[in-house]
Write a structure and sequence with these properties.
mainly beta, five-stranded antiparallel beta sheet, two-stranded antiparallel ribbon, about 35% strand, globular, binds zinc ion
Length: about 150
Amino acid sequence: METTIVKKLLKDYPLNQWLEAADGCQYCKKAYQVRVTWVDESGNYGDLEIKEQHEKSCIEQFEPESHSPRWDTAGWEFTEKEVTILEHTFRPIKLRMNVGPCVHCWKLVVGIPLILFIDEGKGGEIDLCFSCAEKLGVLDQLKKKGDR
Ligand SMILES: [Zn+2]
Ligand SMILES: [Zn+2]
């Protein structure tokens, strides 16, 4: 059981440093790289660059536009209340720009995270990367629900 809840904001990520993203190429699974380039005064919102990376054998490797970094907005805010799901306590996200974090491993998710809406979205959302969702058993839980 985790007792301390990590709450990272965009300002807690190093500026101008390439970091591994939570997700990556759907084919070769190589993680994307992200670099926070600007954070506003609140510390919550800013800009980042995204660089796709591929293994030599990947079919996406031959797409020329995938090599130059692209720009996107990043940032988020938390809700007031924590929620506990599958014995893990999270602080849901209330607002998110295009890029936000996985609230478990805190890597940034470039694509679409797995989103769990709390109280139909009124209580915010829990965004997880797919490897964390799998590790925490969230995917199994959702599959079970679907079978009903
Ligand atoms: Zn690839
Ligand atoms: Zn994660």
